[in-house]
Write a structure and sequence with these properties.
Keywords: Membrane, Transmembrane, Transmembrane helix
Strand content: 5-15%
InterPro entries: 7TMR_DISM_rcpt_extracell_dom1, Diguanylate_Cyclase, GGDEF_dom, Nucleotide_cyclase, Rev_trsase/Diguanyl_cyclase
Transmembrane segments: 6-26, 33-54, 66-89, 101-119, 131-148, 160-179, 185-212
Structural class: alpha/beta
Distance between the termini: 99 Å
Protein name: diguanylate cyclase
Catalytic activity: 2 GTP = 3',3'-c-di-GMP + 2 diphosphate
Shape: rod-shaped
C-alpha cells in the first residue's frame, strides 16, 4: 500500500468523521455553520475522489481522474467555506464588513465551479476559474485575520487548520495564472492540507460545542438561582410567601394534613432590648427549630411563620415544632438572658382546601392562643391534644 492510498484513505475517514460530527451536533446547538461545514466536507470529498482514481483490490480501475470535475468540486467547497467562517466566528465578535465579504465567497465559488465546466470548451474560463478562486483565498485570509484580531477563539483554531490551504491556494492559483499550467504535485499538497483542515476543524467544533454547553449550563444555573431567590426568604433561607404558595400548589394533598401559623411571643421586646441584629439571629433560630420531619416551613414576614404538616399525627408534629423553637433559639442566641417562646394556631387541611382559607382559620386560632396567655397551640379542629393544646370552638 503506497503513501497515496494511505493518505487518500485517511482523508476519507477524517472527512467522514468531521461530517458526521457536525451533523450530530447540529440538532443540539442549531448553529448554521455546522451545515456549511457538512457541505464543505461533501464537496471536498467529491474533489478528492475525482482527483485520485479508485481501484479495486485486483487493480481494476473503478473511476479515473476527472480534472474539471475536481476543480468544480474544489470551487464549491471554497464557496461553502466563506459562509462557514462567517457563521462559525462567535456572534459577539464584531467583524462588520469582513463578515459580509466572507459571504461573497459563495457566489464567487459558484461562478468558479461553472467556469470549470465551461473551460472544457473555452479555455479562457479556466483562467477565470483560477482568478476567482485566488480572490476567494484572499477573502478567506482577510476574514480570518479580522476575526483573530477581534479576539475570536474559533478563528484561532481555523488559522491552524487553514494556514496550509491558504498558502497552497495563493501559490497554486498564482502559478496557474502566470504559467497556464498546474503547480507540480498540487493534488497531493491539497490532500494533505485538507487532512489538516478537517482534523483541526473537527477539534474546533467539538471545543465550541463544549463551550456552548458550559454557557448553557451556567445560564440554567443562574436561572435556577434567580428563581430560588424569588421563593426564598434571604434572612432565614427558608421559603417566603411566594415559595409557600408554590409548594402548596404542587403538594401531595392526599398526605397534607394540617397547617400551623406560628408567631414569636414578645418579639418586639427582643428588638427593643437587644437590637435588630439579635432579633434577626432569633428569627434564624426559630426557622431552624421548625424544621422537623414531614414539614414544610415558610416565613410570612416579621416573626410570623407557617408550617405545613404531613401525616396523620400532624397535631403532635405541630406542637413538637413549636416547642423546638425555644431550644433552637437558645442554641443560636446563647447570650439571650431569657427563653423565647411562640404561639401557634392550628387547622386541618382537606384535599379541596385553599391555602388562603386554611390560613384564615389558623390565624383565628393563633389570635385565640395569644389571648389565652401565649406559649401554646390552639386549633379550630377537633382532635385529642397533648398537654397545652386547647381547642377553639
Amino acid at each position: 500500500m503506497d503513501v497515496e492510498s494511505v493518505t487518500f484513505g485517511a482523508f476519507l475517514g477524517i472527512a467522514g468523521v468531521f461530517g458526521l460530527t457536525a451533523a450530530a451536533i447540529y440538532p443540539l446547538v442549531q448553529r448554521s455553520y455546522l451545515l456549511w461545514g457538512v457541505a464543505r466536507a461533501i464537496f471536498f470529498t467529491c474533489m478528492v475522489i475525482a482527483l485520485f482514481p479508485i481501484e479495486l483490490s485486483n487493480g481494476e480501475p473503478v473511476a479515473g481522474t476527472n480534472l474539471w470535475l475536481a476543480e468544480a468540486a474544489l470551487a464549491l467547497g471554497a464557496a461553502m467555506t466563506g459562509p462557514f467562517l462567517a457563521n462559525y466566528v462567535e456572534p459577539h465578535i464584531k467583524l462588520g464588513k469582513a463578515r459580509r465579504l466572507l459571504y461573497w465567497m459563495l457566489p464567487l465559488g459558484l461562478f468558479a465551479a461553472a467556469a470549470s465546466a465551461i473551460g472544457q470548451t473555452l479555455p479562457l474560463y479556466n483562467q477565470l476559474h483560477d482568478l476567482t478562486l485566488l480572490a476567494c483565498t484572499v477573502l478567506l485570509a482577510s476574514g480570518l485575520y479580522a476575526a483573530i484580531k477581534a479576539g475570536s477563539r474559533a478563528a484561532r483554531f481555523q488559522l491552524i487548520g487553514w494556514a496550509p490551504l491558504i498558502l497552497i491556494g495563493l501559490v497554486a492559483f498564482s502559478y496557474e495564472l502566470v504559467t497556464q499550467g498546474h503547480l507540480p504535485y498540487w493534488p497531493y499538497l491539497l490532500l494533505a492540507g485538507l487532512v489538516i483542515d478537517f482534523v483541526v476543524s473537527a477539534t474546533g467544533i467539538v471545543d465550541g460545542f463544549v463551550i456552548i454547553q458550559k454557557e448553557r449550563d451556567r445560564a440554567m444555573a443562574d436561572m435556577k438561582a434567580a428563581e430560588l431567590m424569588t421563593v426564598t426568604d434571604p434572612l432565614t433561607e427558608i421559603a417566603n410567601r411566594r415559595g409557600l404558595d408554590q409548594h402548596f400548589e404542587n403538594a401531595d394533598r392526599s398526605n397534607l394534613s394540617g397547617l400551623a401559623l406560628i408567631d414569636c411571643d414578645h418579639f418586639k421586646r427582643i428588638n427593643d432590648q437587644f437590637g435588630h441584629e439579635t432579633g434577626d439571629r432569633v428569627l434564624v433560630g426559630i426557622a431552624q427549630g421548625l424544621k422537623i420531619d414531614h414539614t414544610f416551613v415558610a416565613r410570612l414576614g416579621g416573626e410570623e411563620f407557617v408550617v405545613l404538616i404531613y401525616g396523620d399525627d400532624w397535631q403532635e408534629r405541630a406542637e413538637q415544632a413549636r416547642r423546638c423553637i425555644t431550644l433552637a433559639v437558645r442554641a443560636y442566641v446563647p447570650d439571650l438572658p431569657y427563653p423565647v417562646t411562640a404561639s401557634a394556631g392550628l387547622t386541618s387541611i382537606s384535599e379541596g382546601d385553599t391555602l388562603t382559607c386554611a390560613m384564615k382559620r389558623a390565624d383565628k386560632a393563633l389570635y385565640a392562643a395569644k389571648e389565652s396567655g401565649r406559649n401554646r397551640s390552639l386549633s379550630l379542629t377537633e382532635f385529642r391534644p397533648p398537654s397545652e393544646i386547647g381547642e377553639v370552638a
